[in-house]
Write a structure and sequence with these properties.
globular, single chain, mainly alpha, 4 helices
């Protein structure tokens, strides 16, 4: 039941943020979003600091990993607290997503599989 409430809150925030004014297209400077159906949304969420690409671009056609999702939710909700976070055997402390997993876990957004694994490279389903 708690997971359903969290998901409802996430979707509600996402819907509200989608109503905010759109920033100019290509503001993010990604070389791989021009002409894509989500170009304006990608640029808007980048300007908000919620999503970000990497050295190769934004990769709009790639699947979203659990690590990327944890990072997005951490930025979207402005999570800062790590106290009480669960540590996961498959999340290296020096991984780029380690902080996001700690914050998402502390907030109750991420539970893992119950065996100490978060599967950060797994695809979101």
């Amino acid at each position: 039941m708690k997971a359903r409430k969290v998901l409802s809150a996430i979707l509600g925030v996402a819907l509200l943020l989608s109503l905010l004014p759109v920033f100019p297209a290509s503001a993010a400077g990604y070389n791989d979003v021009s002409g894509k159906w989500a170009e304006k949304a990608i640029n808007r969420w980048t300007e908000y600091g919620v999503v970000q690409g990497d050295r190769t671009g934004f990769r709009p056609n790639d699947t979203l990993t659990r690590a990327e999702s944890a990072a997005i939710f951490t930025r979207l909700f402005g999570l800062t607290e790590t106290a009480g976070a669960t540590s996961f055997d498959d999340v290296a402390v020096d991984a780029w997503y380690a902080d996001a997993f700690a914050k998402a876990s502390a907030a109750g957004l991420l539970k893992g599989d119950g065996n100490g694994h978060a599967n950060p490279k797994g695809v979101m389903t």
